[in-house]
């Protein structure tokens, strides 16, 4: 008879993600996770097999959370261009300060290295693009791929902010940048 789990896999993966995000992907070891979770290293190895699988499962858990957050925020904003800005600003709120953002880029590197995680990233990109495009339904003269264009601009604004983070709060910077994108896009749509 197997012993009941004292902590769900989700709780352990949440702890693993916090370790990975705080100290970089290389910091996620069975030993450190055992100390942080209170479970034995052998229990963790039994559940997750090896470090590569632990890292992958941790990042799939993070993608699940991002999918849920994106759906939740998208369902709460108006289906308007301003709602698209609101959606992306809300998604920007979890990045934190420049140190946290930089650590997040190291985590993203792991997503790019793993084919399964790249598929998850591509699926999120497509879903986010559709959600953003829905906010432009009925706006004449807007390109069909406006959602992807706006998401691309958003990701660029996050990166550009990171080079000069002391000038403006991240969410304020993103909001300002996206409103300028929106203004330029709608102006071009009216005056082709």
From TrEMBL:
<dbReference type="InterPro" id="IPR050109">
    <property type="entry name" value="HTH-type_TetR-like_transc_reg"/>
</dbReference>
<dbReference type="InterPro" id="IPR001647">
    <property type="entry name" value="HTH_TetR"/>
</dbReference>
<dbReference type="InterPro" id="IPR009057">
    <property type="entry name" value="Homeodomain-like_sf"/>
</dbReference>
<protein>
    <submittedName>
        <fullName>TetR family transcriptional regulator</fullName>
    </submittedName>
</protein>
<keyword id="KW-0238">DNA-binding</keyword>
<keyword id="KW-0804">Transcription</keyword>
<feature type="domain" description="HTH tetR-type">
    <location>
        <begin position="6"/>
        <end position="66"/>
    </location>
</feature>
<dbReference type="Pfam" id="PF00440">
    <property type="entry name" value="TetR_N"/>
</dbReference>
<keyword id="KW-0805">Transcription regulation</keyword>
<feature type="DNA-binding region" description="H-T-H motif">
    <location>
        <begin position="29"/>
        <end position="48"/>
    </location>
</feature>
């Amino acid at each position: 008879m197997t012993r009941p789990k004292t902590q769900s896999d989700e709780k352990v993966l949440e702890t693993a993600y916090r370790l990975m995000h705080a100290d970089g992907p290389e910091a996620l070891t069975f030993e450190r996770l055992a100390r942080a979770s209170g479970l034995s290293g052998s229990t963790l190895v039994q559940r997750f097999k090896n470090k590569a699988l632990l890292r992958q499962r941790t990042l799939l858990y993070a993608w699940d959370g991002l999918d849920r957050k994106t759906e939740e925020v998208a369902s709460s904003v108006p289906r308007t261009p301003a709602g698209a800005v609101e959606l992306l600003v809300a998604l920007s709120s979890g990045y934190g300060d420049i140190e946290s953002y930089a650590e997040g880029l190291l985590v993203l590197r792991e997503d790019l290295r793993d084919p399964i995680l790249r598929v998850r990233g591509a699926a999120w990109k497509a879903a986010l693009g559709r959600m953003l495009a829905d906010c432009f339904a009925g706006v004449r003269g807007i390109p069909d791929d406006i959602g992807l264009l706006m998401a691309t601009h958003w990701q660029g604004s996050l990166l550009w902010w990171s080079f000069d983070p002391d000038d403006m709060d991240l969410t304020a910077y993103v909001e300002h940048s996206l409103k300028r994108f929106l203004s330029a896009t709608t102006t071009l749509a009216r005056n082709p």
